[in-house]
Each structure stands twice: as C-alpha cells, then as structure tokens.
Design goal:
Layout: E1 19-21, H1 35-46, E2 51-54, H2 56-62, E3 71-74, H3 78-84, E4 88-91, E5 97-102, E6 105-111, H4 121-125, E7 130-132, E8 138-141, H5 147-153, E9 161-164, E10 170-172, H6 176-182, E11 184-185, H7 191-197, H8 200-212, E12 215-216, H9 218-221, H10 224-227, H11 236-247, H12 252-261, H13 270-276, H14 282-300, H15 307-329, H16 334-352, H17 357-374, H18 380-386, H19 390-404, H20 415-428, H21 431-447
Parallel strand pairs: 3-6, 11-12
Antiparallel strand pairs: 1-10, 2-3, 2-9, 4-5, 5-6, 7-8, 9-10
Helix pairs in contact: 8-11, 8-12, 14-15, 14-19, 15-16, 15-17, 17-19, 19-20
The chain binds adenosine-5'-triphosphate (ATP) and magnesium ion.
The site of magnesium ion has 4 residues, from loops.
Length: 466
C-alpha cells in the first residue's frame, strides 16, 4: 500500500517516509495557533505521547488563511487522553474522539486511525471498533494505528500534513505541500473506495474547492456523478451538519452551483430540485441565488444569519406548489390548506436533512408572516410589527418582491413591491404617521373590492345602545 515515490498527479499516495519540512522551510508559526491548541499539544507531549496539529489547522495556515478550528492527532487512546485532561469529553460512535473544552473553544483530539485489514481477527469481529455495510460504507472506524496509517485514512492530501510542537516540523505524508501549491483537492487512495467508505467526502471535496479556491483533481472528480446516489444513505442529521458547512459559510452560491453541477443538490432538497429542473421555474432558481448571495454577503460582513431564513427560502416555492395541490384535492380554507401543505413538505424534507425543531419554528413564522404582512388594517399592522420574527419576515418579503415582481401576472404587478415599500416606510416614520398609513390602507381597501370576513365584522353600533 505504501509507495516510496509520491505521485504528483493521479491519486494521492501516502509514503512510509514523509517529507519532513523543518521550521525554516514552512510558514507554520506558533503565533497562528490558538493558545488552547498549543496547551493540548504540550500536555500530550509531556504525558509521553506523540501529538500533532493536523487537518484544517495546518492547511489553512499554509494557505495564509485563519483556521476555523484546530484538530489534533495523537497516539494516546481516548481513555489516555481523558486521564490527562479534566476538561475532556469523549464523543462519537462512528469516530470516537476527545473534545478538550475551554469554555466555548473546543479542541478536537483524535487517536491515530489504523487499517481494517491490519486489525486483529478479534478487533475485526468486534462490532465496537469497526463496521462496514454492504456498499463498503464505514459505519464505525475505531481501529487505532500509526501516524502513517492515520495519514492514509485522511480524506485529502492537503489535510494530511502534521505539525509537531516539539521540533516545529511539518510532516507531509501524501505530497500535500505540492497540492497546496498547485491548489488541487486530491483524495488519498482510490477515489471509488474512499467515496464508498464515506460518501460525505464528495461534499467535502466540493466544500474545500470553493472555500480554498482550488480545483478538484480529475481522478477525484471522475466518480462523483456515478456515486452521488450513495448520499441517500447518509443519516439526515449528518446531512444537516453538512448543509450548514456548505451554506452557512459565506460560499453558499458557489457550493449550490457545484452541487447542481454534480447532480448532488437533490440529496439535500428533493422537492426543490424537481422544480429547479423545470424551465418554467427559472424564477425559483433566481430566488434561491438571491437568498444565498444575501446570506453570503451577511456572513462576509460578520452579520448574524439564521439557517432558518435560508431554509424558509429554499422551501417557499415547493410549499406554494404543495398548497395548490392540496387545494385541488380538497375543499379547505386557505389557512387549512397552508398547514396541510406545510406538514407534507416538512415531513418529506426531514427525510433528507433533519432540520432541528427550533429552526422549523422560525421557518413557519417567516412563512406565516408573509400572509400577515399583507393584511394591515386595524391592529393587524402593529401585531405583525411586534412579532418577534418581524425582521426576518420583512426581509423575506423584500426578497420575494425582488423576484416575484418580474413573474407575477400583469394585473397584480407592483403590489408586492408596494407592500414591501409600505413596510420599509412604516418602520421609519413617527407613530402618528404610522396610524395615518394604516388608515390609508384601510380606506384604499374599502375603495377597492377588498372585503372583510363576516366573522370578523364588528357588531353594528346601533345594537350597542342597549
Ligand atoms: P475545516 O475544519 O476548516 O472545515 P478540516 O479539514 O479541519 O476543515 P474537519 O471536519 O475539521 O475538517 O476534519 C479534520 C480532519 O479530519 C480533516 O482535515 C481530515 O484530515 C480528517 N477528516 C475529516 N472528515 C473526514 C472524512 N470524512 N474522511 C476522512 N478524513 C476526514
Ligand atoms: Mg477542522
């Protein structure tokens, strides 16, 4: 399995003897590494273990970027790590890991992984250490090994660079430095096997390509189209985590385009994907791109974003389509049709991505506000304005106005952007002017064909005379 000659093209190959870069041959300095990560490295070293910074921490520093987090690999077992750190939590089943917790900062420490074929018979038959399904997917991967084996178990060559805090060297096992310089995402080992072991590596290839402004090497790219359906077997909770990394990262538009290109987007949002592939729904595509580019802008400006807003946008048109289907099949009030459709859309969506309840609640609020923002008479405008999710609902309305205007039937053109403008003004005027605005909408409505529902009509004044 090991080769002495690292290939500069083709699949990534791990060598038994890594290239060792001394401190003067690389830019990884301790000043770029978090104090907590250094503490963990030193403590492990002092305890007599080998420990290296690996993965994104080394890779991003080499690329002149600020690492998102710091991952450490060691020859200490999870139990040995736990014995060294009071602030240690052992987590994970598929991968057993140690989290060293410093308040909100968490340093992830993983024991070197080994090969399954090298594991003893006892280990192999032990369901607790390693498990594969019929498609070759690793359900559990807890066989420990040497650093060379660990390098081979990593996904991409650029992620298999190890920094030592004892002598400040970088150990390059898979010619990762070459790929850092060539800006190539290259899987280690046979791409087919590696994707079958863990289909999420396809998503990771795309994510690193967009995040690091790199290209996916030919061999790494080739099997993606064929193997994409394996993503169906990934648990919905893991898909949710991957969704966040892809779309709440400042690179949502680029990732969306890549996922569509490789026919992968369908495994995140099947109902939406069906709409996107139909010509007459070009506006749906425009809406998604607009919502994603807004999210990207906010993230890149360090503004807060909630994934719920993006989910609401992604499922808005599938919801509208479902409402029409529900209405066509049963006599329901608009409100009942809305909730019926919402139930159908959400339960289907949950099979692909498990959206946590707290985000589902906000999505519903944003959707319900669309209807409530349109009805502004009496106290309704104030009630909508005081809604805790008013801002998100209003922002959503602005997005819709931008896209739907161009696609609405002629006779309703202008109404959505007028509504959006009304709410923009409403937020910027005095309470007196707000009252006038509400009165003006009410009289506009009585001047047009607007009707009040009989149930809501107040009793005629004459009846109150006693
Ligand atoms: P970032 O944290 O910036 O997203 P990262 O490369 O650090 O990027 P992590 O998910 O933090 O990614 O994983 C840390 C390291 O663990 C990776 O660099 C890689 O070496 C290894 N790794 C993570 N996920 C996989 C996987 N599915 N298959 C193989 N190796 C993996
Ligand atoms: Mg990381």
């Amino acid at each position: 399995m090991f080769s002495k000659n690292p290939a500069s093209s083709g699949a990534g190959v791990v060598t038994a003897q890594p290239t060792v870069l001394t401190r003067d041959q690389h830019p990884v300095s301790r000043k770029f590494i978090s104090a907590n990560a250094l503490k963990v490295l030193y403590r492990l070293n002092k305890g007599g273990y080998k420990a290296y910074l690996v993965g994104g921490g080394v890779r991003d520093i080499l690329l002149g970027k600020e690492p998102k987090d710091f991952d450490i690999a060691t020859n200490a077992t999870p139990e040995q790590i736990k014995a060294l750190f009071r602030n240690c939590r052992l987590i994970g089943r598929r991968f057993r890991l140690a989290h060293i917790v410093f308040g909100r900062d968490i340093i992830e420490v993983a024991t070197f992984r080994g090969h399954h074929e090298n594991a003893s018979k006892k280990e192999q038959s032990c369901q607790k250490t390693s498990k594969q399904n019929d498609e070759g997917m690793l359900l559990r991967d807890n066989i420990y090994g040497s650093i060379e084996e660990d390098a081979e178990r990593r996904d991409f060559t650029i992620n298999a660079l190890y920094y030592s805090a004892t002598d400040f060297t970088v150990h390059d096992f898979a010619n990762g430095m070459h790929d850092i310089n060539a800006k190539k995402i290259r899987l280690i080992g046979d791409p087919q096997t590696r994707y079958r072991e863990d289909p999420v590596r396809m998503l990771r290839a795309i994510r690193f390509a967009t995040k690091l402004d790199m290209t996916i090497s030919d061999e790494t790219e080739a099997p993606i189209n064929e193997l994409a359906p394996l993503l169906e077997s990934i648990p919905a909770a893991r898909m949710f985590e991957e969704f966040l990394k892809l779309f709440i990262s400042g690179k949502a538009v680029a990732n969306f385009e890549h996922l569509c290109h490789y026919n992968i987007f369908q495994y995140f949002f099947p109902a939406l994907n069906d709409m996107l592939t139909e010509q007459q729904h070009q506006y749906v595509n425009d809406f998604i791109i607009l919502a994603m580019s807004n999210t990207d802008k906010r993230i890149n400006n360090n503004q807060r974003v909630t994934p719920a807003f993006l989910f609401a946008a992604l499922l808005w048109y599938p919801l509208q389509q479902q409402i029409q289907l529900v209405k066509a099949s049963a006599q329901l009030s608009p409100q009942d049709a809305f909730f019926e459709a919402l139930g159908i859309i959400m339960s289907r969506q949950q099979q692909s991505i498990a959206i946590p309840k707290r985000f589902q609640t906000v999505m519903k609020d944003i959707w319900i506000l669309q209807e409530r923002l349109a009805r502004r008479d009496g106290k309704r405008a104030y009630k909508a304005f005081e809604h805790p999710k008013f801002r998100a609902g209003y922002d959503f309305l602005l997005l819709r106005a931008q896209i739907e205007e161009a696609n609405l039937p002629e006779n309703t053109k202008g109404s959505l952007s007028e509504l959006a403008k009304w709410w923009t003004d409403f937020q910027n005027v005095s309470p007196e002017t707000q009252q006038q605005m509400i009165k003006a909408t009410a009289s506009n409505r009585s001047g047009t064909s607007a009707r009040r529902s009989p149930r809501k009509r107040r009793k005629p004044a004459a009846n109150n005379n006693g």
